[in-house]
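In line with agreed milestones, the collection of sequences with tokenised folds has grown. A representative record is reproduced below.
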Amino acid sequence: MSEHLISIATSLQQQLPSAEFRIDDALIAVSSLMASVVTARRDTEGVPPAKGQATIQRLAKAQMALIDAGGEVLRVHGELVAIGQETAGYDLHEECPKRAAVHRLHAVAT
């Protein structure tokens, strides 16, 4: 495989787990915000149950958008693995889970 293809593959192997991890982080943040908004509404005296409903619905849409984005990035990951196999005989299935785990450990440590 040419040095150029190796460089491209290496870059993609670093970027994909990072994108997947960051989408998960965003989903966790929005989910936490959702829990806080619903808890605040429930715990605030005199606030009618309908108050804040539009906000909660928007947060739910944001959660679904992140879930959909995560699914699309996973599909891209699979497509890039297939392209790597077709163009360079690259077997990324062995490397992807290992790289993702290393990225997660590094992100948690920093």
User: Anything to note?
Assistant: The mean pLDDT is 85. Residues 3-109 form one domain.
